[in-house]
Design brief:
This protein folds into two domains: 69 residues, Serine Threonine Protein Phosphatase 5, Tetratricopeptide repeat (Alpha Horseshoe); 52 residues. The mean pLDDT is 96. It is elongated. 78% of the residues lie in helices and 0% in strands. By secondary structure, it is an all-alpha fold. Helix 2 packs antiparallel against helix 3 and helix 5 packs antiparallel against helix 6. The chain starts with a helix and ends with a helix.
Length: 135
């Protein structure tokens, strides 16, 4: 796996203006629990292409993993502003809000997720979350 990270770092050096290269590196680093480096790679993807919702979603996911709630919320809100039809962004943002204790907002995001992906493999589980969050 470390070889993969070395290859991905080389790719970012060869293609320093390719946000996907930095996203892939960030995700690989997250898999290795190298969160600081992952967040830096994902921030670089956002810097390169600020209107790329995928970069913001992945940055939000990484920031959520280190409990940087406010920064993660900003990343997810930006992603959803750029692509409000992204079921994954709604799901991930809902998870953040749920973990941050913002039950009502989390339920709203999970409902948006199910509206966009009613047949999602986790649909029943998400419906259960919504029910609990609304109590």
């Amino acid at each position: 796996m470390q070889k993969d990270i070395v290859k991905l770092k080389a790719r970012t050096q060869a293609k320093p203006e390719d946000p996907d290269a930095f996203i892939e590196l960030g995700l690989a680093l997250m898999d290795k629990h190298q969160m600081e480096e992952a967040i830096q790679a994902l921030k670089e993807a956002v810097r390169i292409k600020p209107d790329y919702y995928r970069a913001h979603v992945n940055l939000g996911f990484a920031l959520r993993s280190v409990r940087a709630w406010d920064s993660a919320e900003t990343a997810f809100r930006t992603a959803l502003k750029l692509n409000p039809e992204s079921p994954g962004a709604h799901h991930q943002f809902g998870q953040l809000l749920r973990l941050a204790g913002k039950s009502k907002e989390a339920a709203t995001e999970f409902e948006a997720y199910l509206t966009l992906r009613p047949e999602a493999p986790d649909a029943e589980e998400v419906r259960g979350w919504i029910e609990k969050l609304k109590k």
